[in-house]
Every structure is written in C-alpha cells, then in structure tokens.
Amino acid sequence: MLRGPQPGDWGWIIERHGALYAAEYGWGRDYEAYVAHAVGTLAENFDPEHEAVWIAELGGERAGSIACARKDATTAQLRFFLAEPGARGHGVGLALIRACLEFAQGCGYRRMMLWTCSGLTASRALYERHGFTLESEPGPFPYDAARTEQIWSRQL
Asked: What are 39-89's pLDDT values in tens digits?
C-alpha cells in the first residue's frame, strides 16, 4: 500500500536513510545531515500541486519511501527512494517508482531526473527498467570516495 506522509514520516525518511546507508555502505553522519537538510527543505516548501511524497507499507509497517520534487518548470526530481531490506523483492520499489513517474506525468513535467552514485546495483536495475539512462557522472560521490556521483534521467 502507498500513502502520503503522516506525522512522523518525514523524520522516518531521514532516520531510515541514515541507518540503512550506514549499515549497507558505511556512510556517516554527513550523509544523514544531507538527507535531513533536503527533506526539511522539501517539507518546508512543499507544493502539493507539483510535488508528492509516498510511504510504502507492507504488512502495516513502513517499507519504503519516494518523493517527486520540482526541479524546475519542466523537470521533476525523484528523491528519497528507499526500500527496507525485508521489503525488497515484494514489489515495493516498483510501486514507488511507478507512482512517482505517474504523478510527474500528470503534473505535466517533461523530464524526470535523479541524483545517485555508482555501485547501487539494485536501484540502478529499477531505474533502467523504468527507462532511466545515465546522463552524466560529474565527479566523486561526496559521501563515499570509492563511488562516482551520477545523474540519471528519462523523458516523460
């Protein structure tokens, strides 16, 4: 089940990104601080006509998140995509990405982009499955020197 954010969900997005990426990739407090700032900025300036956030639930528990944020008048940005380890393989990621793409198309955006890094193979497979292609690799990923920053995009 996908739903909009309820009280506590914005903080949960921050907490789960911090904890999950620390456990799986060793990223530290600087990454969690980046997520906290980005989530706070989206929450403070949230425009429900052009932006949306979803929380996935599986068995009544939070299982994932995603946001469609306005990048500019024609471009949406997929943000805060996460599927809990126990929810992976249950279609949570697919449902979240589809909801984000459908919302962006309904808003009239012509392009969707996302910012990520090299080596996240499960996410990359989902992005490719939904038509995203690697647009650029601007440089080292700021939170993990072993990875490269990446911009992926697709037309809507």
From this structure: 999 999 999 999 999 999 999 999 999 999 999 999 999 999 999 999 998
Helix (H, G, I), strand (E, B) or coil at 48: coil
pTM of structure? 0.94
Question: How far is residue 151's CA from residue 135's CA, in Å, rounded to a whole number?
Answer: 6
Q: Cα dist. 76→49, 63, 101 in Å?
A: 12, 23, 9
How far is Cα 134 from Cα 79, in angstroms, rounded to an integer? 16
Q: Domains along the chain?
A: 2-112 (3.40.630.30)
CA–CA separation, 52 vs 68, rounded Å? 5
Strands 2-3 and 52-58, by their bridges, are antiparallel
Residue 38 near residue 64, CB atoms below 8 Å:
no
CA 47 to mean position of chain CA atoms? 17
102: three-class secondary structure by DSSP: helix
Q: How many residues in the chain?
A: 156
